[in-house]
Amino acid sequence: MNVTINQEGNKYNVVLEGRVDTTNAAQFERDLQPLMNAENAEITVDCSAMNYTSSQGLRNFLMLQKNVMAHKGSMVLTNMQAQVKEIFDITGFSNIIKIV
Amino acid sequence: MRISRSLSARLSTTILLITSALYLVAILTIAYFSQKMIAQEAYKNASNVLNATIQDINQTLDKVESSVNNMNWIVTEHLDDTAYLYHITSEIVASNEEIEGSAIAFCADYFKDKHYFSPYSYHDVNSNAIYSKQLGNDNYNYFEMEWFTVPFHTKLPHWCNPYYDEGGGEMMMTTYSYPLLDEDGNVYAIITADISLAWLAEKIRSLHPYKNSFTFLLCKNGVYISGDEFSLVDNQNEKEKYINTDYYLLGEKMASGDSGSLRIKDKIEYSFAVYGPLHNGWSTAIISPYKDIFIYLLRMNFIIIIVSTIGLFLLFVLCLRIIKKITQPLTEFSVATLNMAKGNFHARLPQINTKDEMKQLYNSFEYMQKSITLYIKELRSTTAINERMESELNIARNIQLNMVPTEFPDNERYAIHATLQPAKEVGGDFYDFIEVDDEIFFAIGDVSGKGVPAALVMSITRAAFRFLGGINLTIDKMIEKINNTMCQRNNSKMFVTMFAGKINLKTGVMQYCNAGHNPLVIRHPDGRTEFFYAQTNIAVGISNGFSYELEETRLEKGTRLVLYTDGVTEAEDIKKKQYGEQRLLNFVSNLSDSKSAEDLISDLMADVKAFTQDAQPNDDITILTISLK
Fold first, then answer.
1. Closest approach of chain A CAs to the CA of B540, in angstroms?
2. Which of B178, B398, B481, B619 could form a disulfide with B567 if both were Cys (CB 3.0 to 4.6 A apart)?
3. pLDDT, tens digit, for every residue of B354-367?
């Protein structure tokens, strides 16, 4: 999993590449850490290059979402691949995380 | 030990070889230049001796010549007094000790009544007195002798070749002849002086620049005089014997009156000759064998070789000992290393008294010993902790596996079977089922993540399900209660996907609620198999107070349900390829109707295993199947 974060003011462009699974979920969590405490952050996550996420990855997205909301920010996941979208759909995550 | 010995031996041998080579070069260089120098010295020495001798002999010859020449006018004045002529000859003999005899040989019939007339005086060795007599007669026809004929014709003084004077001196001699000329320039008499060759031989015998030097005189006619013998090398056989040899060349050079030096090879021996002409046209040479010249050099070289051989041997022994002593600690280090390898980390190290690389090695070694000892100690305690944790985890695993029902009903109305296989010691999956009053409650769940955190959440969830199963609640309300409980104090944002349902065995009606779980597989009595997509609700533990939706459907007898967690569909082989939903669907579709619930579970597990091969399972795997009969 490769995480690239570009910041312009309170706008964050995050690019995810690869897969989140058991072996790298902890690293993924650390990679997302800079976003956790950003105030009023407007986060756009480009998921076009993410091929898979395990339930731990979902948990990371959930934690990020909650933290962003707590800091009065917003987060949107974009360009998600079909099989990843399916995971979000099945678990009901599509209902609480904004995916366009 | 063998290694250290071979090291010292090898080093010592190398040093020995290099030193020997240097020695050899030095000795050869010294020998070469010494030889050159000695040869030059020898040549100089021999030349000096030769020249001194030549000068000496020439002086004597001069004296003889002047003794004779001085009598010239006296004879002329006393031609009428023949008795006085005898006096003259005896005077000549007396005046010069080298002169053995002297004659005044008149030409034939110079005196009317005397055909032969030659007053002659000689030195008698026995009585050491001088006697005189008239020499010529028919038996001693001096007119035909060389000493007479040559000066008679050339009218010049002459040294004749050595000859044995029979009837005269009765010895091997040479004669100096001086012609007396009258007013018309004709020779009327020859004055002579005889010199014993024994005297000359004696002179050259004393010439010994080197032990085996050999000196000789060469006269004009090839007579050769050495210290010991006279011999005439004028017969053909003798000459041929020497032809093409260096001696022959020497002879020719000497005969030509040259002076110089020449290297001579005689069989295997080399010599050198210095030669020079005498005043009277003869030549003398000294031949000195190189063997004698270089004898001291050879002796010196011999001594040098012996001394250096002993020196090299001592050097070798010394090197061997010193290197062995220096490398001795290495041997002990090697023993210490071996001991350490066997587990003795306090192996004794050699005593090092020097402050060199050996001391560095000692320090490093000692440091290594301490480090390893410390490391092993830490490793032991870490291992102990790990072992304790492992044993605790194993206990936890047993507890967890005993939480889920392991006795499966298989009766005339339905059969249930399930399996739970955590990827680690403990996992976050669970299943459960209870039969209450013709109704079967069942659930399958998957906690996000795995391992101990997931297992803790799993146990709570499962306990809640068990507890609520006994209360008369619809499935959706049950899940809502579980969700609300979970959402409190869930700071780590763990969540559970869950599918729970209740089947009425009398009516076949199934009430169910899906909280973010995978679709289950349904196989209809006619064999048709498909995914059963339920309304998706959010996973449990995320949204407090979320309202879950209850759904209902009717199942016919002979229907099979297969519930699973994503550990099945997302099981990966070593190339990260997933087992997939389609393969699961195909597997259930291809089942025979008679396949028991138990066999279904074990066959499906086998199929997953066949797919993943040796890849490590990356998620917990749980399967629950319900067959209605």
1. 9
2. B619
3. 888 888 888 988 89
Task: Kindly indicate the confidence band of residue B79, based on its pLDDT and cuts at 50, 70 and 90.
Answer: confident
Which has the closest alpha carbon to B294: B67, B473, B74, B43?
B43
Question: Do residues B449 and B421 touch, judged by C-beta distance below 8 A?
Answer: no
In the β-sheet with B214-218, what is the strand arrangement from edge to edge? Answer: B230-232, B223-226, B214-218, B283-289, B269-277, B260-266
| B461/B494 same-domain check | yes
Q: What single letter denotes the amino acid at residue B550?
A: L
For residue B320, give the H/E element and its range.
Answer: helix B295-341
Q: Are residues B555 and B612 in the same domain?
A: yes
Q: Report percent pLDDT > 90 for chain B.
A: 29
- ipTM of the modeled complex: 0.73
A90 shares contact with chain B (CB less than 8 Å) = yes
Residues 29-58, chain A, touching B (beta carbon < 8 A) = 54-56, 58
Residue B417 lies in a domain: yes
Residue that is last in its domain, among B242, B266, B293: B293
The enclosing domain of B489 has a CATH number of: 3.60.40.10
- B539/A56 CB distance under 8 A: no
Nearest CB to B497: which of A23, A63, A91? A91
Q: Does any CB of chain A come closer than 8 Å to the CB of residue B618?
A: yes
User: Structure tokens of B141?
Assistant: 């026809």
Q: Quick one: CATH architecture of A16-99?
A: 2-Layer Sandwich (3.30)
> Chain B residues with CB inside 8 Å of A55's CB?
446-449, 495, 497, 566
Most B-contacting residue of A67, A91, A95 (CB-CB within 10 A), to test interface: A91
| Segment B607-621, tens digit of pLDDT | 999 999 988 888 889
Q: B123-132, B146-155, B596-605: lowest mean pLDDT where?
A: B123-132
Q: Which residues of A touch B494 (CB under 8 A)?
A: 59
Q: What domain count does chain B have?
A: 4
Q: What is the pLDDT of residues A16-69, one digit of tens each?
A: 999 888 778 888 888 988 888 888 889 999 999 998 888 788 888 988 988 898
Range of the domain at B263: 207-293
| Distance between B441 CA and the closest CA of chain A, angstroms | 22
Do both B109 and B222 map to the same domain? no
| Domain extents in chain A | 16-99
Task: Answer whether B517 sits within 8 Å of A91, measured CB to CB.
Answer: yes
Q: Is A59 on the interface with B (CB under 8 A)?
A: yes
Let me know if residue B347 belongs to a domain: no
pLDDT band at B112; cut points 50, 70, 90: confident
The CA distance from A2 to the nearest CA of chain B, in Å, is 17
Query: What is the model's pLDDT at position B4?
Result: 45
* Confidence (pLDDT) at B245: 78
On the question of pLDDT at B228 being above 60, the answer is no
Q: Which candidate, A9, A66, A8, A81, places its Cα nearest to that of A32?
A: A66
CATH of the domain at B181: 3.30.450.20
Contact B618 A63 (CB under 8 A): no
In this prediction, residue B487 carries a pLDDT of: 87
Same domain, B538 and B559: yes
Q: How confident is the model at residue B174 (pLDDT cuts 50, 70, 90)?
A: confident
CB contact under 8 A, B570 and A55: no
Chain A residues inside the 8 Å CB shell of B619: 22, 54
A63 close to B (CB below 8 A): yes
* B513 and B582 in a common domain: yes
Q: Which two tokens stand for residue B325?
A: 């002593």
Residues B93, B215 within the same domain: no
Quick one: B212 exposed, middle or buried, by C-beta within 10 A (0-12, 13-18, 19+)?
A: middle
Residue at B366 is within a domain: no
Let me know whether B153 and B288 are in one domain.
Answer: no
What confidence tens digit (pLDDT) does each residue in B543-566 have?
A: 888 899 999 999 999 999 999 998
Q: Among B199, B221, B256, where does a domain finish?
A: B199
CB atoms within 10 A of CB B472: 9
| Amino acid at position B493, single letter | K
**B497:A96 CB<8 A:** no
Same-domain status, B34 and B172: no
Note which residues in 492-531 of chain B have CB less than 8 A from chain A. 493-495, 497, 515-519
Q: Can you state the angle between helices B451-469 and B357-403, rounded to 10 degrees?
A: 10
For residue B398, tell me if it sits in a domain: no
